[in-house]
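Second attempt. The first submission of non-specific serine/threonine protein kinase had a stray character pasted in from the spreadsheet, which I only caught after the job came back as garbage. Lesson logged: always re-copy from the clean sequence file. Corrected sequence (413 aa) follows.
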Amino acid sequence: MIPFIQNLIIKIIFILIIFEFFLQVLDFFIEKEIEKEFEKEIEKEFDSFYFFGNWKIQNPINISNNTFVNIKNYCIRKSSISRVYSQVNNKNNKDVWDLDLFNIKYGNPNNYKKAEKIGSGKYSNVYLCENKKYVIKELKPISLNKIKREIKVLEILEGKNNTIKLLDVFKNEEEEEEGKNQSCLDSRYHNCTSVSLVFEYIENINYKELYPNLTKQEIKYYMKQLLIALDYSHSKGIMHRDVKPSNVLIDHQNHRLELCDWGLGEFYHPGKEYIVRVATRYYKAPELLLQKKDYDYSVDMWAFGCLFAGVVFRSNAIFKGSNNSDQLVKIVEQLGFNDLDQYLIQNHLFLDSEVFEIVKYFEKKDFSPFVNEENQDIANQNAIDLIEKLLVYDSKKRLTAREALEHQYFQEE
Ligand SMILES: Nc1ncnc2c1ncn2[C@@H]1O[C@H](COP(=O)(O)OP(=O)(O)O)[C@@H](O)[C@H]1O
Ligand SMILES: [Mg+2]
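This time the job returned cleanly.
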């Protein structure tokens, strides 16, 4: 009798396991179907949506407890769109921004004799020409599309309003061969060419030497010129995406400022998602550090705010993170967690849990500790007010270049 009962129990357990397994499989397929239907529904209603799967996201319901929950959910939000100049490229002809319709016109390399190297960056080496009038920016082998984009952006800007003027473009044949051997092996780089861009030579003084010696009036003058360049490029539908001191050339003798390095320049289209690996760490806007892809011209205004604060406080950079997460930590240390929290909730963004643990109790600070004996007449009330209106998490509330130009700081004596 006992073996019979034992046998029966084993059979029942076995049947239950099979049944449970069957239910799990069924559940999986039903859930997939529901997800598909839901996605279709959302797509119909919204311009864009985000699916966070099993990612950790901040749950607005639990936010008062500062807790994180691991939820499987859909987060839906409309694309965020620039407050200004949002429709410029929609109104423009397609041939302004569509790189497939653009062919580079190459000049003659024999017109230029390169002399000593005067600069270099991630993407190029820059040489002075023998005649000391021009510089040659020799681009490192990169995709043809990226080269086209820099040239097209420079052509649209035409060197007006403190943007560097492109004079010529030529192919460097020796380099072309080198380029082919190096990067064309990479499948992304079909059609590899090494190209040189020719610009007017600006007798630039290194910012580390120049900025600490600028007077109050000179700072005001140059910052105004930089804002003019930014407002102009934004009005042309172009984001710079790498505003920082080494990309701002200043010929101090002639009081001339030129915004250079349009290598990360990009045409703005409302709601479009862009790569967030742009800008240099100390100048990266919070939205880039939070992986918000539908950013706009306002990333340049954050970078301008950082640059301006650095000049005014006579410090190299005000937020110096050792990596991207730490960069955000440095920002929150100054601007506090509460405003960031609001911004995350409103934009359905999430914060890395490790960063959250570090920053969750950070209080907003004012900028007065940055003021010292050396900078006190430059870092006046108006300058600090301008910094505070530029360095805000919410890119919609950040001043635009035009608004910054109208700020009291530029009106005072
Ligand atoms: N027209 C110019 N006149 C003088 N110096 C220049 C000029 N263009 C570039 N440079 C110098 O070369 C450096 C690198 O040029 P940039 O355009 O910023 O290239 P990258 O994309 O490699 O950073 C600049 O930081 C600057 O010091
Ligand atoms: Mg540069």
